[in-house]
Amino acid sequence: MVKKSANPWLRTLVRAGKKQQRTVSRALTALLLPKPAPKPRARPTPKPKPPPKAGAGPGPRSTPRKLAATAPAAPASGKWLASRHAGLTGEGNGAMRQMRYWLYLPDQAPGPLPLLVMLHGCDQSATQFAEGTRMNQAADKRGFAVLYPQQSVSAHPHRCWKWYDRATQQGGGDVGLIVGIVRKVMGQYPIDPTRIYIAGISAGAGMANIVALNHPDLFAALGLHSGPMFGAGHSQFGALGVMRHGATQRVDSAIDEVLLKHPAFPAMPTMLIQGEDDDVVRPVNQAHLTRQAMQVNRLHHGTPVKVTTKAGNRNVRAHRLHDVYSGRKLVLRVAQIAALKHAWSGGDARLPYNASEGPDASKMLLDFFAKHRRK
Questions:
Q1: Mean pLDDT of the chain, nearest integer
Q2: Pick the CATH number of 8-14+64-369 from 3.40.1000.70, 3.30.470.30, 3.40.50.1820, 3.40.50.2000
Q3: What is the pTM of this model?
């Protein structure tokens, strides 16, 4: 367990996460909460819409736009396959539900393939996430297969993964469906079982963390971009509080519960990516996730940290990398990106929740994952 008197680097992260930022817009509430049934009324005469305000950032929408769930991802040379999986919901009532997913398989990759599971955020589809992150192109160069499960609008009207739900955090909800898809793909294609990884953004990062912590023997490493801390919220309103302020009282106890459930929990190498100007999932969450990752990986509070500062230019934002090693093995990498809001770093800015300026988060994650395999 990481003590509260952690090293100066960790304390600096916590202080940075607590800096005052702009108030999250009321649209954030609409993003997480289900839409009420509309009241029947006469259709008013449409009025012209005012132009958007200059400088408006890619914040959450109060009304979800129609998602092109079947649109093709950005072109890559491999195979792009769509399918669906039926399985138990994990809600304890024996109900079955289907989950759609897309799979990218690189061309001419030698031997068994490493597999990366990618979980989209709210108001995204799996194909939009693939296109926006350009992960298929990056994975093609490294010989990775990439799997994109998709949340349904019947489960949440904005396709949000329910990372804040207590039962889901304990391995219920959609966790079993996602793991079922992974195992199905492992049985159908030449996947290396020692090189399976999981990552996501925002709500997808929260869900990726939950899946990995509940199935540590399946995943070799974990990547979280702009994600909330683990083990808190427990309601939709509580989730908003976590996104804004984290949950100090649950940082250690949530991981204590995981380690009690899995006494022989193996190491879970983790990469955390966060924009310093994110006012949706605020940086305090990265500070809390850092502390939780150190606890999961049994890293002593005095463990040395290697800090690398990268200057910005026209195409890449300034950023810092904090690397924590266990012996010679890189176990935790924390990336703090200057001026980045709630968006995938180095993505396709034509799509929401993507910022064209680097560093390239997709490449960073693949580079990190390539260093790890599950023994």
A1: 85
A2: 3.40.50.1820
A3: 0.82
